[in-house]
Specification:
single chain, 119 residues, mainly beta, seven-stranded mixed beta sheet, 11 strands
């Protein structure tokens, strides 16, 4: 069974930084496309950033409001995907979820980690 465990959330002041980690166990990590999504109260879940599998080149993609501030990366030796978040804004406040997906029908989620940006 595939398991995703996120960590690194917390309270940070506007302009600050956080790094989220997601450790994947139970499957071949390098074969999965990995992503971070977030959901704020009363809003739909949205893509934060994604990185494709090793075999497809580790291509990254970002939500429009995250470009230039957030960086996604994967440490394949540690089965971990990282999200470095800089220049955080109050509107970045949300629960952040890690996702692992592999065609045709593999799609897994972590339990989420809270990020709060507030002074």
């Amino acid at each position: 069974q595939v398991r995703l465990v996120e960590s690194g959330g917390g309270l940070v002041q506007p302009g600050g930084s956080l790094r989220l980690s997601c450790v994947v166990s139970g499957s071949i990590f390098t074969s999965y496309d990995m992503g971070w999504y977030r959901q704020a109260p009363g809003k739909q879940r949205e893509l934060v950033a994604s990185i494709s599998s090793v075999s497809t080149g580790g291509v990254t993609n970002y939500g429009d409001s995250m470009k230039g501030r957030f960086t996604i990366s994967r440490d394949n030796a540690k089965n971990t995907v990282l999200l470095q978040m800089n220049s955080l804004k109050p509107e970045d406040t949300a629960v952040y979820y890690c996702n692992a997906a592999r065609l045709p029908d593999r799609n897994y989620w972590g339990q989420g980690t809270q990020v709060t940006v507030s002074s």
